[in-house]
Design goal:
The protein has about 525 residues and is of the alpha+beta class. The chain is built from 17 helices and 25 strands. About 5% of the residues have low confidence.
Length: about 525
């Protein structure tokens, strides 16, 4: 475990990293950030100091020797750099407690009580293979990291941290039995942070296994080896190549982490072409209700962290990436103010154990709102002001090995280059043969292709297009989330057999031009 205290003006910032890689940051005793990290991460937070909002970035880093360092920035200025952390608890970092009489512990004049030392205490050994494994995990070289951790385990078979890292890698590599065994050994060797077994992103694959619940109930001591042989029964049912299957997992970004504060909103909403200045308090309330809708569907929700390199539009997190069965493809944004979003998302994807399958690079551009799965082997990709031919060609190359056919859809000029206009502005699949469309702006060739494929079209009326009537998120087949204020479209969906959940979205959707599909980056759905 690592601990460090940093002081900036009158603000006391404390950093704690548990055995399992859970980093906790407090400011003046209040927890302000908590993340799981193997190789370091960024913590973003805003504090009130002397009646002013001050922005901080605390960065944890791991070097090639496995040492942990901290950087701290205050309003963009680096005030601490490469602060080396020592292993130890908060108490050991502050040193021994001294009383008024100059003696340690107890009352004045009393001798301190001697603590009993455990017999044969375990002392962790210097382990170069372990350090090498951590570095390779940082670079997502999982097979190589696994080899190093196995060597480290032979050198020090009592190090519980090594077993935990092995469990994480086995989970991402979908080696169920080995992952369960590694968790069991971590627990047996004194791993104390059991919350990490239940919450760490890299262990998500193991947690969906039917045997995991019984494993937890046993205290991580017993599991049926026959039951965990192979992949979970429901694994074969999961795919990223769907817009309408039951939503199993999704990334979102809270409006509070995208809008940050009133100062950020005031400075940026006009330049981003919002229809009006968002009311931050109302926006947070709307977003909380939106999250509740997702939670009620039993969807696993991952959160993209606050990041000062990106702007308010980062809340519309679908646009920065494309989810595939081969991993995540990072986009290159067509809107200049959003070019940093894919890089900011990449770290969060890696933390969740999601492979990066490829990246779209300049001069190619693609945004996630311009692509939509028609079926598991067919992806519709727009050609417009946010997605160009070079981006289409790069995406086609990346997807060739996945047996995916791309259909290019030419978008109209509509309101020009500055407008928020994507393919999913006019097309939202909600079942394998049902889609919400706005036909006045839909290319004839694409509309005919949908009809040819057997799609029934739910038409959005003209008066509900600007209020996001066509932007509908399917959380399951014919189970839809949409913005309130589109009664005709909602009625037409219900007439087609859909269950509709509507949320207040004036601040988080209408003003910024991003409906529920824009607010979410689906990862996996059930077939």
């Amino acid at each position: 475990m690592y601990y460090k205290k940093l002081v900036a003006n009158d603000t006391v910032i404390e950093f704690h990293n548990s055995w399992s890689g859970v980093e906790t940051v407090t400011a003046n005793g209040q927890v302000i950030s908590k993340k799981s990290s193997v190789h370091g991460t960024n913590h973003y937070f805003t504090l009130a100091e002397n009646r002013q909002h001050v922005r901080y970035i605390l960065t944890s880093k791991v070097d090639q020797m496995g040492q942990v360092f901290l950087d701290l920035r205050r309003n963009g200025q680096l005030i601490y750099k490469n602060v080396l952390l020592q292993k130890g608890s908060r108490k050991s970092d502050f040193g021994p407690i001294i009383d008024l009489g100059g003696r340690r512990g107890g009352r004045r004049g009393q001798q301190p009580q001697q603590r009993k030392r455990p017999q044969n205490p375990y002392i962790r050994k210097e382990n170069k293979a372990k350090k090498s494994g951590l570095i390779k995990m940082k670079e997502y070289q999982l097979e190589e990291a696994l080899e190093d951790f196995l060597k480290a385990n032979k050198q020090d078979p009592k190090d519980a941290e090594i077993y935990f890292h092995l469990a994480c890698i086995y989970s991402v590599l979908e080696k169920t039995k080995e992952g369960f065994e590694a968790i069991k050994n971590a627990k047996a060797n004194g791993f104390r942070d059991e919350d990490a077994f239940l919450n760490h992103d890299m262990l998500a694959y193991l947690r969906i296994h039917p045997a995991f619940e019984a494993f937890v109930e046993s205290g991580y001591t017993e599991f049926d080896e026959g039951q965990v042989a192979g992949k979970p029964k429901n694994h074969a049912k999961l795919t990223a190549h769907s817009e309408y299957g039951v939503l199993e997992s999704v990334f979102i970004k809270k409006v509070s982490d995208a809008f940050m504060d009133e100062y950020t909103v005031d400075a940026n909403w006009k330049d981003l072409n919002y229809l009006g200045k968002p009311d931050l308090e109302k926006a947070i309330s709307e977003y909380d209700a939106f999250i509740k809708l997702l939670e009620n569907q039993k969807t696993t929700i991952h959160y993209l962290p606050a990041n000062y390199t990106v702007g308010m539009d980062s809340m519309y997190c679908r646009d920065a990436s494309i989810s595939t069965d081969g991993g995540m493809i990072l986009c290159n944004m067509g809107k200049g103010q959003r070019v940093t979003e894919p890089t900011a998302s990449e770290e969060a994807f890696k933390e969740a154990g999601i492979k990066i399958a490829g990246k779209i690079t300049a001069p190619g551009t693609i945004e996630g709102g311009d692509v939509a799965w028609l079926d598991e082997n067919t992806l519709a990709v727009a050609h417009g002001y946010r997605t160009n031919d070079e981006g289409f060609d790069q995406l086609k190359t990346i997807l060739e090995t996945m047996n995916v056919e791309l259909i290019q859809v030419d978008l109209p000029h509509y309101k020009g280059t500055s407008d928020v206009f994507h393919l999913m502005s006019i097309f939202s699949p909600v079942d394998k043969n049902l889609a919400v469309v706005y036909s006045p702006l839909m290319p004839v060739r694409f509309r005919n292709e949908l009809i040819k494929r057997g799609y029934e079209l739910v038409e959005v009326p003209e008066e509900e297009f600007e209020s996001m009537g066509c932007n509908v998120l399917a959380v399951a087949p014919r189970k839809c989330v949409m913005v309130k204020g589109n009664p005709i479209t909602q009625q037409r969906l219900e007439a087609a057999g859909c269950k509709v959940y509507a949320y207040e979205g004036i601040e988080i959707s209408v003003k910024g031009g991003g409906g529920p599909t824009c607010l979410t980056r689906p990862i996996l759905r059930y077939r």
